[in-house]
Automatic annotation (TrEMBL):
This is Uncharacterized protein.
Length: 554
């Protein structure tokens, strides 16, 4: 499918470029082209959203957009994927399709190479230094600049057919699965950060995969450390050692009976804190990490809790922490755990009361006492403490199954709806481009005022549920933003020629929700189809044609 792409950047460039430029040269060939994503790529993603609404999955898109037999093509693709994973032969159908697309092949190479580097846009330091800049990824639910998702968005937006888009995406998922199986982090995604709920779901899911890889590595290290301690103590699972001299203060702890007991799963010592009954130092245990929840799983969990009233996940985590604490601190009591895990539920004794003794039984000591809620009968913490055994975290039943979670994510990526994917890529590239442009424009006070109007329109429009209906308008405003970043002098020359039309500007502001003067630059408002009468057409008055009907040119 050759999708009609309206390269308005070309028209804009011809309006302000020097006469020396050849007709047909792209304005994005200069050095700035590696900084701001081009507008025609964003338009291509918008067309992808609009033309694939009736298709359920990327697999269906790949099948429906093939010229030959779907069965034959499917078997060919499967064989190619098998060769790339087992034999290492990369010159398959994918290579023959994309061999000339440097951006696509470079991105795939970065995924296949463990030391691959993704982004050409090293703008993070410039953006981060200015804390006043807009967090576009958060405002419109996109993805941060310089990440894999924005690179994917630009690579897919450069493709001209749905078949290539689907084939490229299938290869990306294959490579992500390979990285997971080999325990390699996905490049361009933070290696160990919990899902950023302000970003798009795709970015969150890739974050989960990298987090799971990091967790499995930490678990392997913790298991190796525990095995080495047991081997050094030569106890074969018997964690008590009578009067045997300790190998080191970290390895053993003396309990109230005088026996030395092996510490298991201890991470680091807590400063100025000792166990209430034994006086031994308190050690923070290595604990099981909680579940990694993306926005869709959080919604499912909330619905489950509201429907069933279950709080089982929280109890399981608390019980796991108690067992790990007991293993790392032999001879500890509930008060020790509360002091470490929930400090507000423990009140230290005042200086005047140090010589006095409390008479509240197990709920207090000469050093302090538990909160009222902890002292009540039937308190959940006390019940769990009594049932908790001394088991290090790496020997407990896992609370979160990384393999199952990642497999579910990979399956969802394979079966994702094309329109859902293109929507996320569209918003990610849009937020990235606007963030980069703002970093370049913010130093120009006059230009920045115009940029703010563009920014407000983009944010308000994208936050609405029906933003897809205004995708063409968003693309046109983004063209303005890119032109302000790439050729600010040309934009200033054109905008200064705009006639003063207070009435039209007021109408535009009402229609565009604060779009103000910029509305007249688009020909009398974003909803207008033609420029106002007696107004000279401007470089901003051109609008892209309506996309082809869905699947018309597959």
């Amino acid at each position: 499918m050759f999708v009609p792409v309206f390269d308005a950047n070309l028209c804009l460039a011809n309006a302000v470029s020097s006469p020396k430029e050849k007709e047909g040269d792209s304005p994005l060939k200069d050095d700035n082209s590696d900084i701001v994503p081009p507008a025609n790529v964003l338009k291509q993603l918008a067309i992808g959203v609009q033309t694939t609404k009736i298709i359920k999955s990327m697999k269906d898109l790949m099948i429906s957009s093939r010229d030959s037999s779907p069965v034959k093509e499917r078997s060919t693709l499967s064989l190619s994927a098998m060769k790339s994973l087992v034999v290492g032969e990369k010159e398959d159908t994918f290579a023959s399709e994309f061999g000339r697309d440097e951006k696509v092949m470079s991105l795939i190479h970065s995924l296949t190479n463990a030391e691959g580097h993704l982004s050409r846009r090293k703008i993070g330091s410039r953006v981060e230094k200015n804390t006043n800049l807009t967090n576009f990824a958060k405002e419109i639910h996109g993805a941060p600049p310089e990440c894999l998702v924005t690179e994917l968005a630009e690579a897919i937006g450069c493709l001209k057919t749905l078949r290539k888009m689907a084939l490229f995406w299938s290869r990306v998922v294959v490579e992500v699965r390979r990285l997971w199986c080999e325990g390699q982090h996905i490049p361009g995604i933070p290696p160990d950060e919990i899902p950023n709920l302000n970003s798009c779901l795709l970015y969150q899911q890739l974050q989960v995969i990298n987090c799971c890889i990091s967790r499995k590595r930490r678990r392997a290290i913790a298991t190796e450390s525990l095995d080495s301690v047991l081997k050094l103590a030569n106890l074969d699972g018997d964690y008590t050692c009578g009067d045997i001299p300790p190998l080191s203060p970290v390895v053993y702890a003396r309990i109230s009976s005088g026996e030395l007991v092996l510490r298991l799963g201890a991470d680091k010592r807590r400063e100025n804190c000792t166990l209430l009954e034994t006086g031994e130092p308190v050690y923070t245990p290595v604990m099981q990490e909680g579940p990694l929840l993306t926005e869709d799983l959080i919604k499912e969990t909330e619905e489950f809790v509201l429907r069933t009233g279950s709080v089982g996940v929280g109890c399981s985590q608390l019980l796991s922490d108690m067992q790990a604490f007991k293993a790392a601190n032999p001879g500890c009591i509930l008060e020790d755990f509360v002091r470490w895990h929930s400090p507000p539920d423990w009140t230290e004794a005042s200086t005047d009361d140090e010589s006095k003794e409390y008479v509240n039984g197990d709920n207090s000591s000469s050093k302090g006492q538990l909160s009222i809620r902890m002292q009540k009968e039937g308190n959940l913490w006390r019940e769990l403490w009594e049932t908790a055994k001394s088991v290090p975290a790496v020997r407990q039943s896992p609370l979160y199954d990384e393999d199952l979670s990642v497999e579910g994510i990979l399956h969802s990526l394979e079966s994702i709806s094309p329109s859902g994917l293109f929507e996320q890529l569209f918003l990610s590239l849009l937020s990235s481009g606007c963030a980069i442009a703002e970093g370049r424009i913010c130093g120009n006070e006059n230009m920045y005022k115009t940029f703010k109007e563009c920014k407000d329109y983009i944010i308000v429009t994208c936050q609405a549920k029906s933003w897809i209906e205004k995708a063409d308008d968003i693309c046109q405003v983004y063209e303005t933003v890119t032109m302000m970043a790439l050729n600010p002098n040309g934009v200033i020359r054109v905008t200064t020629k705009q006639p003063q039309q207070p009435d039209d500007s007021e109408t535009c502001e009402q229609k565009g929700g604060g779009f103000g003067k910029l509305g007249s630059m688009f020909g009398g408002g974003m909803d207008s189809k033609t420029p106002p009468k007696n107004q000279e057409p401007t470089m901003f008055s051109k609008k892209p044609p309506k996309p082809a009907t869905p699947l018309e040119n597959i």
